[in-house]
Records
---
Amino acid sequence: MEVGDVIQFYDSDKLFPAWGFGGKAYNGTVSHCFNLNGSSDASEVEGVGGIMAAYAGALQNFTLSGPTLFGHVVNKAAEIAVESLKYNHSKYFVLLIITDGVITDMQETIDALVRASDLPLSILIVGVGSADFSQMEVLDADNGQRLESSTGRRATRDIVQFVPMREVHSGQISVVQALLEELPGQFLTYMRCRDIKPLNISAAQTYGPGQSHAQLELEE
């Protein structure tokens, strides 16, 4: 809710694709990327409240199940980013992943992230619970080492930020600040590398509660 309340102000229609992964249906099938709202067609829900409602509804039809695979949802988000580039080069996407499991498709996820590093996409990961999230730190690549795919290709840029909720609960950090602190830099790196200029928008137009275009530029 806290993260969504911040980033939703940068989305014009407030419609968000929402997917579940690691969910076992009553017929025993485990899915690693399914529409959270139960629809077989559209994955979008309205607002942060819609995401929460869709999750609550999905728990009526799915039970939590392993293994924990990220590759499917990363590729799904990448597909949306690729499609958007056909019509609009000024859009940027953020994928928020909330997980309580140890990732089991590490190489597939790294390969997907390396491919996605060329796209207008950032990925925020929240680790819930007491699992060993050391692999998430590898995906985060804060050590300065860019991810390398199974074919030897290096990521164009770092697009992942990981935060364990146990550090939030212990009062060490703010989840919103920790998750979003690298996002402006990732966004600007992508846009500057492609020489994409900001739209000509009046400084009076607001981007968030009491936040003007001029204020946004100052904060960046």
---
Amino acid sequence: MPGLKIIVTALVGTSLLVPASSASSVPPRADPQLTISVLNAFGSGCPGKTTSVEPLPSGSFTLRYRGFSVAGNDYKSCRLIARVKAASGWSFSLPSVTNQATVALDGTSTATVITAMWFTGFPWTVRDVKKTKGPQTGAWNTSAVPRKAAWSPCGASLDLSVAETVRTTGSRASKASLVATTFGLPKWRRC
């Protein structure tokens, strides 16, 4: 038995002498990236070429709107369809949606943002309604989390539909604008 202890100690001691550079020669695994392109956007909130996709360094993405504003007792909506492509051998899920809006509401007014998101051929991933009351002026951010994670098919190219509605009620001077919709960092799994 004493000889066994010496052998184990020698092996452990030897493994500590391995240079650190050989252990770090394997690069850390990075998650794949999504490829996104807007196929179509339509509705009173996003007429002709007023939306764009901005990929983020984190691997997520933001949809930007120009001119998606409502005033008085009115509403506008936009449905955007984007092609989302995952890398071969991977499946992904979008864990959250955050809307960046601005409001100018007096004490008698409200603003509502209704968000729906789904992949073509799949049930609703997100269906959410957020409301705020005046008086309020400035930024108003809302977020929604899917009730159940929806995973894409393996390495698939899917069409993602995002439907946004902005509504104001109350004073004619009330105003709300949707500036951007940002998707949370995708979750990945090998398939």
